[in-house]
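Retro notes - structure team

What went well: the batch runner handled both jobs without manual restarts.
What didn't: labels got mixed up in the shared folder, which is why I'm recording both outputs here explicitly, each with its sequence directly above its tokens.

Job 1
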Amino acid sequence: PVIRFQKLGALASGIEASNVQVSRLTNLMAASSGIVVSGKRRVEAVPTIVEYIAYEALSIGVDKELASSAMALFVYINRSLPMQDSLRLLCSDSIDGAKSFAASISQRLDASSKRAHLLAHYEMVDLILDLILRDLRSGSTREINLSHVLLGFPVGSSGDEWEPTNIKGTGDCLSLILDLLSDEGFVRQEKTLAFASKCYELIYRLTTTKNIDRTLNAQRVLYVAGKLRLLSFWRHHLLRFLGHRQGMPSMLETISSSTYVQEGSDHLLHCVAWLLRGVANELRMLMGLPVHGLSRNHPLAVLASPQYSKCRDLLSLLYGGSFKLAINALECLPLAKKQIITETTVPPSAVVKASVSPLKGSSEVTQGWSIVCLDKLVQQMFLHHGKGHTVTVENALKWAKQWNQAVAWECAVSHLTESFRVFTSSSFVYCKAALLDDGCSMNAMSSGAAPLDTRGVVQLISLMLLQMAPPRQKRPSAICMDDAFYSSTTLSLSYTVFGVVEELMAILKSLKVPVAEGDALRISELVARAIVTSANAGGICQSSQQRERTAVLGSALALVMQFVCDNDKSDSGLVSSGPERVTLLRAAMVLSKLACNPVNGLSASDQASEQFAAVALTSRSALSALFRGIDDDASTRKESFIAQTFDGHADTLASFAQLVRTLDNNICLLLEQISMRRFGTEILQDAGVLRALVDAADNYSKEESRVKQGFHVPVSSMQSYGSTKIGIPTFFSGHLSLLNSMLATGDISSDRRARIAENSALFLQHNTGVINRLLSEFPTDGDVTKELMRCLYLTLESLSEGDKPDGRPALGSSDYGAPGRLLRDSTYASLEHRALELCYHLSQYPFPQRLLPSLPPNLNSKQYTGDLERPVVSVTTTEQRTWWDMVEGNPHPMQKEMAFPPTGPSDLGGWQTGSSSDDIALRWSDFKYELSIDSAEILEACLLYLNQRVIVSPSVTLDWLALAKGFCRCADAARAMEGRLRNYSSPDDLVNSMLHAGIGDLNQKENSTQSARMEKQYLSILGPLLGRCAEKILFLAVRHSRLLSREKLSEKTRKSIIDLSTAMLATLDHTRVEYMGLGCVGMAEDEEKRDGTKKVASVLRKVLESQLKQFEPEYERYY
């Protein structure tokens, strides 16, 4: 652009004009660099100007003006040009230029820091530190930026310049900052405390390992770490702030114990906070830093390797010996609120809101904190003058200054507490092996004893909890934690407690170390007290920080309770009486209120935020662990822990029931845990949980019908291209598990059990559509199918027991009482038919068809015997499909290949040939073993139901041909599995036999050993399962045959007797159970159980043969 200037000329010369071409100052300065005059290179303007930043004259005024002007040009260039262009201009695009530039800034920083009482120099120091921190805070991954140049980092990735030996006097900002921090006065003086805080932040950011994936970034981190270790930086500065000197309190203790907040004391807290974060980085690096791209000969390579002795020395300074600086820091955390605002005249709210501005500083520390801008406040006061308020500008400014001081102090306390959490986490996560003796090999390489033992960790946890929730006599007026402490600080400390408790429990569990007597009770009581004081009066948490803090403490309590339950050597059954029980009871009440928040389902709208859901989930988990860990031996319901938890809080239980009704699929986990406690089922029943389950089923059924009506084609119908399908609802499994838990409760009256069963029957009837889909889609949702079959069995059993005083139903009458009413219901009959079909199918196909041995000829499926003379209907018989076809048609991507399982007599002690099939879908795997186990568990539940079913209604028609086939399959496989387990009792035997049979690779014997161990484990589970299934079919045959003999003789009864007799006699001939017993039954015990099955089989043969002889004439007509 060109600007034209015009003016009147002298005398008659007229108007004179001149054109001026406008140019950016940066362009002019860049153009002045590299101009050659008279064959010589002209001195470059920008580097020359930059040198004046360090200018010092006899006159302080000249010094200030000249240096400030040069600094202003430097800042202008830095902000106007891209990073690489500005550095090229400032440093003459040379290494020497970069060093000269860094030296100029360093000298100015040094000179101005000594005159910080003058505003211009104060601003100069602040500006330089902010320029360096700007790039460090942003986490810039550039190979070089302004902060790297000013801090004097070497250029390039190799060379002796990376040797961190020259620790001072190098003329860069890093060396100067280390010199400044070594000066006691710089850290203590009020004018320079803010600078000291930024210097400690700078050290922390230079040692952070966040971006060490880049070689150059890793080199810079190690370079700084090396310099700091040569100076013993961490030890010196930790002792400065946290150590006691000649009986005098530490600097942190002096600030924390003061009754009022001194000017600049918040900066001292920030200094300690950044120091603790830096120590956390150092601890992590001392345990070894994974750096790629560094050669062994590189000067920094040794710093990247583990430094175990140095790590233990630093940890001993923090946790052991006479210093215990970490304990000192914990004891001196200024958690308590201080009275800072004494001005009672508050400006109008509109004025304050218009004057708010963010607190300056690092965003990760100051984010969310706001102060009042004094200049804006004055302007707003004048704008609102005469609008009904009487507050003077002087009073408003006084209040605003106190408010800002209070905000800055609370922010600093919060930062310190969070930094303590980070530091503690680093100690226990990265340095656990050096901190505690855990039996690892590293301890043998480290000199000296470990700084902490488990007892010391328990004391550390106790001290943290006492800091958060001191005994009532120390703070008698504080009901809630937030009345006495800053909520943000106690939140950070609660996370620290959780982290240390988690590590302690993991160590104790891995080492099988019992907790010292009373320790678990002590920790749980202190955590429970913190939970109680975390809430307001009445156990209500109103603020988000209250809810989060309480939930975190609840998680810590859950860890302790879980350990107590899992470790038999720990405190036996935590507190059944005493003051500790009262504290735990009050904690349970607080957690129960938080557990009422919806997590999902119909009531979980947008209003239920993620935090509410997370808090609810955590609280439910903590409450479940607490109920499980309490040793409740109450003899009456009123004295039980569960009842006392909800005593006077019926609304809480009502909320739980409502969550069930609105399909919250997580609440049932908590309710199931309650039902397993003494009097728990009664409490849930009286709270209306059973009715809620039925209502939920009814509501979902209606909703599903409404959705189906919205489709243009029938759901699940076949279409030309694709189909429409409705899945199994996520809440259904939880509802089934809760029902089963309540049905299985032992210590309730028969009337209550009957009412539970009646509600369970209604639940099943309302969920018929879901159940039909579930049973037709096995092995999908196999766990849910297992729960369903168990529910069917327990419902029928409970209905049968509830109708008779002695708990035994009248045999032989399907019209009998509640069971009869259920069985006559057409909806239930359809459901039962589907369940029995699955039972028959699973019994016949415990494995894929190709792996099953042949059946006896007289158990082959009968062909269609209808009228085939009419050629109108075309009948074609195809090979039957099984549930395994779905599995092998979709092989699992992560399955581990294994040898085929033994399934029949030909497999005794060996393996089937062709184990390594070319088709991956046909190979056997750990995934298929898991499915086989699921199938057997479902079959076992089905057979339990059938045994109960024939008791209630002996006239029921069963497919004994299918059951007989299933008996053969289960008995043959169980016997073959027992043979393999007995013949190859050790993994090495299994491996050698596998390799001899051509299974596996001799070069990968370790993998084969692992596979053999897995196979042995699977067979030890699956074999007994199949043996029990065969045993239940055997008992079912005995029971059904005897009950049928008592029925009124009819054509249906005759056919049932003949079908049962012919099928099971053929089975007994094939399996020879009377002589050999059932496989895998009694393996872990003596042979009495096996002998029992032999006797039962002998009795069955006698009964069947005698019954069959009675119907010999009819036998010819049927077969």
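Job 2
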Amino acid sequence: MDRMNGTPPRKVSFSPRFSLVDEEEEEVGYTKTGEDVRAGLVTQPYSHQGGTYLHSFNVDIEDNGDDVLLDWEQYSRTTPRWRLFGKEIGCLSPPDWWYHLTKGQRRLLFLFFIGATSFTLILLVMMALASLHFGGGPYVPHPDIACEWNEWRLPDWVKPTAYSLDFEVNMEEPWTVEASAYIDLDVLHSTRCVVLHAADMSVVEARLGGDDGLVAMNKTYDESLEQLTLRWDDAISVGEQRLYMTFTYPLREGMAGFYKSTYMDDGKEETLAATQFEANSARMAFPCFDEPHLKAPFTVEVVTSKDYTVLSNMPAKKVHHHDTQEEGLQAWHFETSPPMSTYLLAIIIGKLESVTREIEAPAEGVWLPQLEDQDGKVSEKKEKRVVQVWGIPSQIQHLEYAADAASQIVPVYENALKVAYALPKLDLVAIPDFAAGAMENWGLITYRQSALLVSPTSSLADTRYVTLVVAHELAHQWFGNLVTMSWWNELWLNEGFASYFEYLGSEAVHGNMSFLDGFYFENLPKALDYDGKNVSHALSMGNELVDSSGAIEGVFDAIEYQKGASVLRMLRAWMNKGSTRDDWESQPSEDDPFLMGINEYLRKHSFDNSTGVSLWESFDTSTELDLLPLMNEWTFRDGYPLVTVSLDGKGNIKAKQEKFSVSEEMSCDTENLWWIPISFVSSDSTTQIKWGELNACQSLRPLITLPKNGWVKINAGQYGFYRVNYSPQLWSQLHDAVQQFDSNGYPLLGGVDVAGLVEDSFHVAGHGITMEVFLKFLQALHRRPVDEAGPWMSALPYIRRIDNLVSCQKDWSNFVSSSILEPFIENGTLSGNLGENLVDFFTFSGTTEIDGVSNPAELQMLRPAIIDIAGYFGTQSIVDEAKSLFKDVAKGKSPGLHPDLRSSLYNTIAKVNKKNDMSTMVSMLKSAENADESERIIRALGIFDHGHDSLKLSLDPAVKAQDIGILMDSISFHGGNKAAVRLIEWMQGNIGPLYEKLGQDTVAGRKLGQIIERAAAHVKDTETMSVLRAIQDESSDILEDVRYIDRAVESIRSNAKWVADHSDFVCDWISE
């Protein structure tokens, strides 16, 4: 960014409807002539006290002999003429500028030239002597350096070029894996040692040159670095080499590496073997160079019992029984993959069944990523692809929805990106035990069952979740697999893109589920809260900040996912601001400049790695837009701006920026300014979004001039990743605006904009306004349409949070019930003046669907949310109905109970807190057949308040290891400060058993760190900070990344500050 005039350098300006920058230049008096503008020049006047002057110079010269200027005409006539062999050599004559120097200046310049020349010659001689002494050329490591390697990153002079892996897996006790690996190497410098990753295995043999090659004389293992060093007597020569290794280990008990997953099928326990390698667990399955930039092709063979199906990234090219194998075994040979990172390799062995869909060949104009064959040719043939969705036999009927979604989303991405899916097949597999939601292994995507299966008990929320997760992992086939971040410090290049594109894919195939409308309240609040902490980090961090397995696990956070997605969406919205299509986001077009840049990025870096800089540079050629200076602060700086909007006496709206902070007042840093795209709507134009830019501390010209009593809403559509504060008068006008409707019965301000006002007003309290602004928005919610979920989805977490933090909980509960919930439930209306009676809608047995509703999905989402919060605050009619229904549900009956309301029912019963109901739910959990039902029961079990009973369930076999986080998060979220403090104190004494149940690896450490961090978000007692520090000191080997505890401590301080600043005010305000 050009800091002189505050304008971002760019090759082509997508002219906004209004530019703050251009207006500011006029305000300060810049003078631009036509020639200046065409040349990119600006003449800036010089202001001094009372007047403005053009730049001028006044030079006085004192005659002291040497510095007297000569008579140039006379001097030029006596200029010496240089001759060679009688011919005049004009090029040896001094240049014209030489004659404009004084004698003293020429003498100094001549002496400087002689000195510089002498120094350069001496330096060159010294370098030549050093070259003779040390061998010259670039740095060459000594052959023994790798033998003493003690750095976390691998040496960079031995790189893999191909893997050939053979696994023989025993699917019975003792669950042994006996395996071998051929690794083709490119040795850049002669070395006696090869250093690679390996963990939790016994390396039997290592040879150089193949299976009959030279045996390594020594194998040493560094457990802390998870590195295996192989040494030979003679140095390995530069060039192509082949490493052969054999190794063995048992299938792991955790959920990382190559592990076993158990499940019940027809009353019998069955076992499935699965891999989970992201981020650093491929080394648990085979010795490898386990860093994302070290890509190589993989050829895989798996031998196991013929009773099992085996899947890997590529199609099986041959399945047969070897004559040398024991009877009953079968070998699966898979085709060779394209170059990919080790963490993307996958193998599944299980008694699986599938449903199949076919995807048409990529459309005309879609580029097919291909590598050259041995003859240097690239195939242009486009063929149909097969999608198979796999699960255990008892779940086969629940795979249809995911198969339909996947087969429809792939073409959506291909047509938007103009880049085809690169592999010949695509498998999606539901795993009974799975730590994450899903994993994007190239061509073989793995999911926890609740993220892939849709059953008759699935609610709309469950179905939306499956759609989003399927779409997320499919997006990774381009962002992460085809193009991979170079190192984990820029994980957002994988996760940020996938977290945004999942909404585009989902919206395209199920537009009736309001995915894009939900992007804001499902992503922004979490990301803004996380990034508002002092212990945050930039999207692209320095490599040195991600220098251990624990640190890598720690970056899988809201910054890399939700902030990454939000920043990309903000940029795309600004780049499409000139579009005449309202559906530019949901229906991608070929002239979308953002997608044009992404196409260039994918084509340029396919089968390779990338960085944040290379992403922004990809837009240079495709859109002629220089994004790097614009996106610098968003990419390489933590935090985000607070945009403060003011109104003067003439109705002029101006804006200023500063870094947002909860803990302290901030001022604008002129050296670190965000380029902020400003979208807005106003009382003059309620439906058309207008745009401006702010890249200075504050605007000098108005963004817009409002009429009397007019209003303006900044960050219209909530595309921007920033918070907005207004002057008190503007807040008051917006309070009125959110309750106004047009002549057709539709609100003037859209639901997402009202959600943004609710979110911002809570967090900017203390920045010139009080909590009264937020509280008035809560009171206005009952006037909003019932078929509009956004405002409520934003408000409900804060309603619960205030209940947890204020000292007047009973008064707050009464206020919420009487002033917020009851008016909405009893008098709610629908958009478009629909006269439907909604009195019974917010009950367990009321009407489920209403004809003619503008947003049926939002209406369906809001119903269980309102019933749930009413049950939380003890609304008697809801509680009584829940008690009556639960008696039947506990007996296996569901009289008219819609799947959307099952969670609300269980949560309401749990809040009543009867111990026999808790026992009933534990029994229901043990007999639950569907994953979504199991998870909603586990969440309800976290609400019961019977001492440590819920906490102890985390170690009970009834709660699977993969679900411990669901239980613990529910305990702290629903129980607030008291339950969260209890959880943290209990974990101090039980972190060891929890770590063991979770698998005793870095993934387990990340899960425990996240549980503690999320629990602390509900704690206001500062004494708990010492408990957190004690946990860190006592369990540093488990919680390797100290930032979990640092963020937890900061959350408690933030809550304590909120109590000190706002609790009394809120209590006084609601009592008036």
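One thing worth noting from job 2: Residues 1-80, 82-87 have pLDDT under 50 and may be disordered.
We'll revisit the folder naming next retro.
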